[in-house]
């Protein structure tokens, strides 16, 4: 209640300052850029999931256990490189525009997904897998019916973290002509125009929260009840 | 039903199982017993090929296990593990139906089977079918573990220390329940245990392992009575003869067709009967043969009248179906040297003495 009052008071004060109307001036731009922003995030995120999930599954197979740590190190490297440098490198190889931006975001998003997939699958107790094999499940059935359902909570936690980072990093794509809300933020900085900057920054923050919330919901509903700590 | 023929398993230089020969007849419970690392679990897991033997052959139901597809083989063998291994992501119902589902049973049939099996293991289907494993106690979980292994009605069950993780009181209960179930279902069971008491209780045959070798394979009574070497003797415990009390029934030590008197018989008859048999007392029975009381020689010698006037209550009675452990406990509790044995209806069947018990226990040692 108090919080609501505070927000309301804040809004009223901003209104009095003439801030909100000037922010709303950018409404058309914001709506257009949000679309591009989400496209970048969705594309890179989907790619990261499409690669990270199978990679994590393969790395968690006993046969590849020896390579798992090595591959994780390499993927880790992708994340330790500062995001800006990563984008610069992507640009120097792939040129400017959306593709290098998507690639850079993909690399950034990949690690938490792979890491959590491996961790989630490894945390499935060995005796469950033995019981499943002993009852006559094929390796594929063990994965689908036992391992994945028991690991999916941890895997989705990885996707959640990855996507929150992803959406929050998309603005940097503007630097290599990738589009997105970064256009308002960086232009706002350059023009010393705080309203423009905020017109980009506030939607970016909101998007990150929204995506996090959406995946949180997915976690709540998709994870089987018996292994879902949320319900 | 299950036959192992010179089966060995090597892990690198380590010999886990060394040329084991054994045969488990259909319908019997074979307990593989031994200290940890003796190869008993490895031996069991080779039967459903969770571990592939390095040498030798295993026949299940007459077929060479190596020639059957391993997935098909495993679906035809029930499997229960110590950690129970119910899948936490599935309801109790789905857990029980794992193998039927793998075999492609119609859903209605498998779900009906799940409800029946819950009844069989004494759990209420109305309450438990839709629950998740985490909502159950350890004992309930293992009952469901057993139900799950029985789901597709396999002829063979493999059980890897199934009751090891359950508290002692519940363990006894579940063991008893399982034995009742087994008496009805007559599965061929291979059961891994490290607990000699459990083995004696459950087994029709015990296989004792040491360092990968099968040292002795025999009935529980024979193992307890005639351990082949010092290792087995030590493993089964220095009180092994006392453990046999549980295996022997009252009928094994009972003197059947005993002398008896009726209430209307004259005392002289009773005295004569006792002197004839060299007994200090004789049981008095009712008109149809139920044990009613006792007449002691000391108390009636030289007296006149009928038995009914001089009878005393029976000091101790034991059911003929009980094991000797119960009988001996009854004797020691009341400080008696003998007990009257009756059947379920109370009819007098015989008597059992401390000497008779000693003789029954000592019988296997005499011929050595």
From TrEMBL, chain B:
Which Pfam family is one of those matched by this entry? CBS
Q: Where is the ABC transporter domain?
A: 2-236
- The Enzyme Commission number assigned here is 7.6.2.9
SUPFAM superfamilies from the UniProt entry: CBS-domain pair, P-loop containing nucleoside triphosphate hydrolases
Could you identify this protein by its name? Quaternary amine transport ATP-binding protein
InterPro entries tied to this protein: AAA+_ATPase (IPR003593), ABC_transporter-like_ATP-bd (IPR003439), ABC_transporter-like_CS (IPR017871), CBS_dom (IPR000644), CBS_dom_sf (IPR046342), Gly-betaine_transp_ATP-bd (IPR005892), P-loop_NTPase (IPR027417)
- Tagged with keyword Acyltransferase: no
Primary localization: membrane
The protein's enzyme class: translocase
